[in-house]
Specification:
- With about 240 residues, the protein is an alpha/beta fold.
- The chain contains 13 helices and eight strands.
- The strands form two sheets. The chain has a four-stranded parallel sheet with strand order 2-1-3-4, with helices on both faces. A four-stranded parallel sheet has the order 6-5-7-8, sandwiched between helices.
Amino acid sequence: MKISLFIPCFIDQLFPSVGISVVRIFEKLGHKIEFDESIVCCGQPAFNTGCWNEARSIAIRVVERLQNAEVVVIPSGSCGAMIRVFYPEIFKDHPKLAAAQSLAQKTYELSEFLVDRLGVTDLGSQFPAKVTLHDGCHGLRELHLKHQARQLLKHVKGLSLIEMKDQTSCCGFGGTFAVKFPMISTAMGEVRCASALETDADFLVSIDSSCLIHLQGLLSRKKEKLKTIHLAEILASF
């Protein structure tokens, strides 16, 4: 299968190891990989801010560049939800609607693609540590992803998954929400960090680097030992 990777802008700029990990995973599985460096953003920041015209202008480029892709995989529930759920919404009554709907139908978040499309749950990964899992809001509520990441973590040798008592709370980041409402965002993040710390895990893992950058900032500020890590980085530890 030829897989077109969509690497979100914040991963490209701040967490390149996540993108590299995704490439390593698919190379191990024997798939061909394409990556268009000209696609730098899905348009979600503008969309979340209410600037739908601006978001659409960015999304048009994405739709056009990926229209011939066999399948698109994104290591982010947030950006995955933008393309699959919100692209058809912002292109309503637009000439590119059919193309946007077509792209939405062949776009997958990484764990979803591995488990639901490829039927892969064991990559031979090894990660001897205690981890707890944060379910990002877009992945959980828009893409309805929950069991996929857990199935993958279950098969990682040496890894012990310790669930938080509250598995559904938002981390408080929400993209531009954290900028517009920093005090509320911080309070929500502190509650989420407290839940993670209760597990006594070594790592807090998620399918979204956007959530993790917010949580790691709060943890580091309080000099906590708990570290954040993207699911792809654990899976690529083979």
